[in-house]
Amino acid sequence: MAQEIKMKKIISYNVNGIRSALNKGWMAWIKAADPDIICLQEIKAHPEQLDLSVFESAGYHHYWYPAVKKGYSGVAILTKQKPDKVIYGCGIDRYDHEGRFLRADYGDLSVVSVYMPSGTSGEERQSFKMQFLSDFQAYINELKKPRPGLVIAGDYNICHRPADIHDPVRNANSSGFLPEERKWIDQFINSGFIDSFRHFNNEPHQYTWWSFRANSRAKNLGWRIDYQMVSLPLKDRLRRALILPQATHSDHCPTFIEIDY
């Protein structure tokens, strides 16, 4: 009898440092939430800096793709079911050196953890971000041909619409809400993806990131920049999509989807 694979609950979480999150009780939260797959961004650690037994004892296989630079960027995937295949990076050195892309394949389903660049530090990084977005779209266009069932989960560092940001007027010229970035989200969705959260929930004031400054989280002055984009062939298998702001191990909160497999 073939082994039954149950891949239903997927959590994506920019933890802003996995070691920091672990010190804030993150593992107890994960055990309570009990997801099948966890996509992590901004891990800021190499696996040799971690006690990997804490993930294994919770029942997870773990795959890490840190940045070359210590304490910076990096993505990971924790998964109860061992993937058929794991792909590290996208084959473009300037992005792979920053640990921004990790893919796990399960039958006809591929789950990606992605950490898109921020442009907030200045023009050079904004230019880098825009080039990444262009290259990422081209890469995904090719990936969809052999792997049409895609969940691309992570920190996109872009708010799509005014409802996704607490002050769209004052932030109209801010990196993360620039017209060209929002246009990119439009065309990415139009290329064959579903914004899973907006598929179920059109309410405003639903955010995934809050500045540490000015008590922003308590006032819910946030940005929705974390997504689980689901390719159109998976549309009928998508059951739920949530934001989980009660998780407070980071300046981000997790996103959650449930998908039939």
Can you walk through the features of this model?
By secondary structure, this protein is of the alpha+beta class. It has a single domain (10-259), classed as Endonuclease/exonuclease/phosphatase (Deoxyribonuclease I, Chain A, 4-Layer Sandwich), CATH 3.60.10. It is built from 7 helices and 14 strands. The strands form 3 sheets. The chain has a 6-stranded mixed sheet. A 6-stranded mixed sheet has the order 5-6-7-8-12-9. Strand 6 and strand 7 form a beta hairpin. The radius of gyration is 17 Å and the shape is globular. The two termini are 17 Å apart. The model has no long low-confidence stretch (mean pLDDT 96).
Provide the number of structural domains. Answer: 1
Q: By CATH's scheme, which homologous superfamily applies?
A: Endonuclease/exonuclease/phosphatase
How would a textbook summarize the main sheet?
A: 6 strands, mixed
Beta-strand share of residues: 25-35%
